[in-house]
């Protein structure tokens, strides 16, 4: 039987208990998809699963602003990150909003005809570049927590999906067919159009006060979810020694949003520094992680919990690089 998972074997969702089961129940209710693989793959680390879901829910689903606009931002992010799994997912979700012509237009790689839609898609793509000029926002300023939160959510989820899932959203790649995309979207339409109350995911978090929330979140639940995911993801740094940690942080500090060359020039050799290599690949080119990369790092003590944490750490340092540049821009405006 084929599986959507790469490098890891999460427990069957039917055996979930505690926080994991609670997260799955809320995902089914508010996202409309029971046990989506993008979250199941995080389930061996519930302390990551809950805040990742919370950030998605509070921004994309419960945050202010139209769902179509936020799906276009998420799609733009996924295109910029070269994550076919997530590109297909957001195409289906655009069908779920009822705008079938828009969904198929972007599926063909064409620019949306509506000027506002085109600006949202292009804005999402630009967010991959740390420090890119993202203003004026293509949405009302008061909707910024939801739109910025959505973009940062999928900079994280794209990397998790590219690293730990196959490219097929549906079995045998059925999402390649227009009729399947449309039918799948229609099945989700009622949930996508339902209003979800903000803040309901926060009870799932280990720590309701995870630290200072970013200024752009404007005191909304999006900020708490982001801070919680930041804290959880950064725990993965403990899987690296000090030298590898410093290397990863230094490379990300200079990252300009570009994708690495085919030769992966400058990446550590897997035989010498496998942990640093995995973390950097997760940050900059998760679709380039191979079985050999994971095998070189794996030790008997390295469980799936460890692998998910290391990949999440690499993914989030890229997110943090993007978010830090964004926060600096907003701070300068306020000053």
Structure description:
The longest helix is centred in the C-terminal third of the chain and has 31 residues, at 304-334. The protein has helices at residues 18-30, 37-40, 46-61, 67-80, 84-96, 100-107, 115-126, 144-164, 178-193, 221-234, 242-253, 274-284, 291-297, 304-334. The protein is globular, with a radius of gyration of 19 Å. The model has no long low-confidence stretch (mean pLDDT 94). The chain has 335 residues and is mainly alpha-helical.
> Using DSSP, what is the number of strands?
0
What is the radius of gyration? 19 Å
β-strand percent reads: under 5%
Gap from first CA to last CA: 58 Å
Structural class: mainly alpha
Low-confidence stretches: none
Mean pLDDT: 94
The number of helices is: 14
What's the short story on this structure?
The chain has helices spanning 18-30, 37-40, 46-61, 67-80, 84-96, 100-107, 115-126, 144-164, 178-193, 221-234, 242-253, 274-284, 291-297, 304-334. With 335 residues, it is mainly alpha-helical. Helix 1 (18-30) runs parallel beside helix 3 (46-61), helix 3 (46-61) runs antiparallel to helix 10 and helix 5 (84-96) runs antiparallel to helix 6 (100-107).
């Amino acid at each position: 039987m084929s599986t959507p998972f790469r490098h890891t074997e999460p427990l069957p969702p039917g055996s979930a208990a505690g926080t994991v089961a609670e997260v799955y129940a809320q995902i089914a209710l508010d996202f409309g998809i029971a046990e989506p693989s993008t979250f199941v793959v995080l389930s061996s680390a519930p302390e990551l699963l809950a805040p990742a879901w919370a950030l998605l829910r509070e921004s994309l689903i419960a945050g202010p602003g139209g769902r179509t606009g936020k799906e276009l931002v998420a799609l733009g992010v996924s295109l910029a990150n070269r994550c076919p799994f997530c590109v297909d997912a957001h195409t289906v979700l655009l069908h779920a909003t009822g705008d079938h012509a828009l969904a198929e237009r972007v599926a063909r790689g064409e620019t949306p005809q509506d000027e506002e839609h085109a600006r949202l898609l292009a804005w999402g793509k630009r967010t991959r570049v740390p420090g890119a000029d993202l203003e004026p926002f293509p949405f009302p300023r008061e909707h910024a927590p939801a739109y910025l939160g959505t973009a940062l959510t999928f900079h994280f989820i794209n990397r998790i999906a590219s690293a730990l899932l196959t490219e097929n959203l549906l079995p045998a790649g059925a999402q390649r067919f227009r009729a399947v995309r449309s039918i799948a979207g229609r099945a989700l339409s009622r949930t996508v159009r339902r209003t979800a109350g903000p803040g309901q995911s926060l009870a799932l978090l280990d720590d309701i006060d995870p630290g200072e929330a970013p200024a752009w979140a404007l005191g909304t639940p999006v900020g708490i979810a982001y801070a919680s995911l930041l804290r959880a993801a950064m725990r993965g740094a403990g899987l690296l020694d000090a030298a590898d940690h410093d290397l990863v942080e230094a490379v990300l500090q200079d990252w300009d949003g570009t994708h690495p060359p085919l030769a992966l020039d400058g990446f550590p050799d897997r035989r010498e520094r496998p942990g640093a290599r995995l973390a950097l690949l997760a940050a900059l080119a998760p679709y380039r992680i191979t079985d050999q990369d994971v095998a070189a790092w794996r030790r008997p003590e390295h469980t799936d919990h460890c692998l998910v944490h290391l990949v999440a750490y690499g993914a989030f340092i890229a997110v943090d690089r993007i978010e830090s540049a964004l926060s600096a821009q907003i701070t300068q405006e306020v000053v």
